[in-house]
Amino acid sequence: MSDFFPVLPRDVVMDILARLPLNTLVRCTSVCKSWYSLLINPSFITKHLNLNLNRSPHLRIVRSYSDSNSREHYSVRYDDDQIFPEYAKPHFPLKSHCSHYFRIIGVCNGLICLSDDQFTYVNELFLWNPAIRKMMPLPRVRVTFQSHGPFQHTIGFGFDPLTHDYKVIRIVHLVYDFYNPPKTEIDIFSLSTGTWRNISHVPFPLPDIIINERAPQAFLKGAAHWIASSKSSRSYAFGFLILSFHMAHDQFGQIKLPHNITEDANPYLMAGIGFRVAKFQESLALMHLTGTYRDHTCCIWVMKEYGVAESWTKQFNIDITGSFSSVAGFTRKGQLLLQNSAGYLVAHHPQPERLTDLLIHGSTNSAYLHTSFYADAYTESLVLLGNRFSETTGTSPQESSPGAEDVKGGSGAEENRFVTGVKNENEETSEDGGEL
Questions:
Q1: In sequence order, what are the beta bridge partners of 339?
Q2: What are the angstrom distances between the C-alpha of 18 and each of 12, 96, 310, 338, 402?
Q3: CA distance 320 to 318
């Protein structure tokens, strides 16, 4: 079979292979060095990803934390069905040293960015592709508690559409005192180079912007978005705004909140868990709490035209008094995913209003109520296939042994959907003997 393909043009071979299932492609990397060289080529990985985005079933990855065994569990689920049936159950290879679970920074094109900083100053970051069982620890960060003292920080993760590169941005506000604006240090990691780059010279749109500590991001339109605050402008609701960072241009931007959000917003809640950005289908969304601390409503706003503050539209309100403990995300069709007071993940359908229990249990520990669940859109991809692992950052991933060993899929799976990595001998040299 491998002797047949050389008579075909390379682009024809790429087109044929790109249409194969992902698990078949990973096994094909062990056929010969020429196939391995082709399959780890960034152009082929991009071609396969684009085809997968258009033909694959809509999937969503869900992370939950279990109190019973103090472990985090991942499942990939179909996102076209109201009951969220399981598609696959990837094995998570890490165990946090200091936190009970890893914080998910973001999910993009099958790649998950993880940080072990949920409750501590630990600075370990990883990129994980569960579909091919590849995990890559990022190099050590430049700014740490040991090197710079106390700080508050946030992290973003996304895709640069111009260079087809995956990037991680880390923004650190150094805490010197409470009377002066903190100094900000900014670094960005590029998967293509495998290194961090200091971009602290890049200015914020306002001089005294502070991003909420460990603020969750929303990545869309090539930019990461977070809730931030600034005292230098009175044109924002309670001084809050949405800060964006565009991966392709290393540039920050700002988006105003809905102009009438202050009519029913509670500033105490907004300063804590009451303000959050998210991706609603293909639009930027804002979630905020209204009312009192014990009796409140979650309001969902959607920006119909990206970057235009006047296009904010209130999508719906949900009374969450006593019934729900946290928001995990949205489904593809726009239902809100919530953790109820019993610790189960439920889907809220706004029209007509009803709840569906998805039978996924999380933590009921008060310390983890707002973060034990995470849900985001997911697409199987070959990203990280052929990438060299960078220097370890302290936590050693338990890599699967290379080969074609199967991993049990979800309900109704006829064959393994998540496969192991490729053989090590093919990672040593390309077809012409050069290093890959």
A1: 326, 345
A2: 10, 36, 43, 37, 22
A3: 6
Closest C-alpha among 268, 264, 222 to residue 245: 222
Length reported for the chain: 436
pLDDT for 108 equals 96
Neighbours of 221 (CB within 10 A): 16
- Return d(Cα 374, Cα 104) in angstroms, integer: 8
Tokens for 206, please give them. Answer: 């306002």
Q: Among candidates 326, 393, 327, which has minimal Cα distance to 142?
A: 393
- Same-domain check for residues 126 and 18: no
Q: Count Cβ atoms below 10 Å from residue 341 Cβ, excluding itself.
A: 12
Token pair listed for 189: 């990691």
- Across 250-352, the runs of DSSP E, i.e. the strands, are 251-255, 275-280, 283-291, 296-303, 312-319, 324-330, 336-340, 344-350
- 62-72 per-residue burial string, b: 16 or more CB within 10 A, e: under 16: bbbbbeeeeeb
Instruction: Give alpha helix (H) positions in 19-64.
Output: 22-28, 33-39, 42-55
Q: Which domain holds residue 85?
A: 56-378
339: its two tokens: 């953790």
Question: How many DSSP H helices and E strands does the chain contain?
Answer: 6, 25
The mean pLDDT of 141-166, rounded to a whole number, is 92
Residues 68 and 207 in one domain: yes
The CA distance from 341 to 40, in Å, is: 46
Q: How many domains does the chain have?
A: 2
What is the rounded CA–CA span in Å between residue 56 and residue 79? 11
CA distance 256 to 244: 11
150 and 288 together in one domain = yes
Backbone angles phi, psi at 177, to 5 degrees: -155, 180
Tens digit of each residue's pLDDT (9 = 90 or more) over 205-234: 988 898 988 889 999 999 999 999 887 765
Task: Report residue 26: phi and psi, to 5°.
Answer: -65, -40
Tokens of 317: 């309100």
What is the pLDDT, as a whole number, of residue 76? 94
